[in-house]
Protein 1
Amino acid sequence: MSAELDSLYQEIILDHYKNPHHKGLRDPFEAEVHHVNPTCGDEVTLRVHVADGVVADVSYDAVGCSISQASTSVMTDLVIGKPVEEAMSIHEEFLTLMQGKGNVEPDEEVLEDGIAFSGVAKFPARVKCALLGWMAWKDATGQSLDSQSISSQGGTDD
Ligand code: ZN
């Protein structure tokens, strides 16, 4: 990667870190999860609201490094308003990029600002930071779908 591209990517990450999108916990939501990345000390509490098969809202509160927080901000931009299936495939695409050790060419059409994390993929310790919010989203979305399919029971088991 060129030094120019590298600094552009760092700028995108810093921008999301300073001005996170969709941050704050909101109602309504079907599932709330808390994920931590102990190796770095990153934490995220994340809520998902799914309506009619669409990711209607993702809200979160996060503490930790710039990569974990910026990545969560980028993720909300990419999945909110998308059908769950499409959002899951974007998740897959980001996962593939982050697990590619820097050898995967990111698709900007799909990942938009997410391509900024392609440089992070070379650093295994930071990959966990970049994936924290995404994993929390997938977990919460799975729980949202489960809760909707058994909503007639109205259980509140923890
Ligand atoms: Zn981190």
Protein 2
Amino acid sequence: MRIVVTRRVPEAAMVVLREAGEVWVSGEDRPLSPDELREAVRGADAVVCMLHDRVDGAVADAAGPQLKVVANVAVGYDNIDVPALAERGVTVTNTPGVLTDATADLAFGLLLAVTRRIGEGERLLRSRTPWSFHLGFMLGSGLQGKTLGIVGLGQIGQAMAHRARAFGMRIVYSGRSRAKPEVESALHAEHLSFLELLRTADVVSLHCPLTPETRHLIDAEALGVMKHSAFLINTTRGPVVDEAALADGLLRREIAGAGLDVFEKEPEVEPRLLEMDNVVVTPHLGSATVETRTEMALLAARNVAAVLAGEGAVNEVRPDGDRS
Ligand code: GLV
Ligand code: GLV
């Protein structure tokens, strides 16, 4: 069995993969180009890929009819054309669960950083600007009693809500479907329409997957509905936010600030956002802890091993879009 890995993965995962077949790992310290990807997968029974790899029917065809499984080392799988792969009999897997806490931690970190001006304060000191403590100096916004609006109350959204509850925030949420009553009551979370959420939240945090319905969910219109004092946090996928509209909205002070871990055209970032002190940016670090990245790679490797062994995948993504 030939297993193609598009970017280096932790050794723990390599051990599992080597037991399942002959492993080829890209030696590049960058994403493979689309041409390189099609070339690399030739003859593969399994592909372990990253969120920057676009895996569609053409890639599956380049691999050949023996391709059985594409294991994305990510919970999000908008980079994979799941229906096209399903048509070709290829199982797609993702890595839910293991990155929930790490991602919610980073989202909450961005929330604190932007509301308490941590990045701005850091830059002030590093620029050796003179300063002194005074009662009006670099004031931020408190969180206690404020409302967090969670768009998409899935696993990560719920983990974010738990953190916010500990900080004394009230939770409202919107999403395709209503959460279970026990989830709502544990979080004291109130379900609102998306518009109502935008209207009432002091912080809007995005935790929905990127789908055709959520692309540019936060656009000029949505920003116009948000409170002028509100903050936007995005740790899901960049294209859920219209980045140019966000820059426009921030310049017009339609909202107070943003904490962003993901971008529309990674690794690029809308340059105007980088000029703004009320924007905190991190380079797609949501799941970036040693523990979580190891778990993610291991889970992907176990998915490959299970499918190649003729067993069911641990985390199969179904073509109807439901996460297993
Ligand atoms: C990271 O962004 C993931 O989807 O796992
Ligand atoms: C703040 O630093 C305080 O001591 O109140």
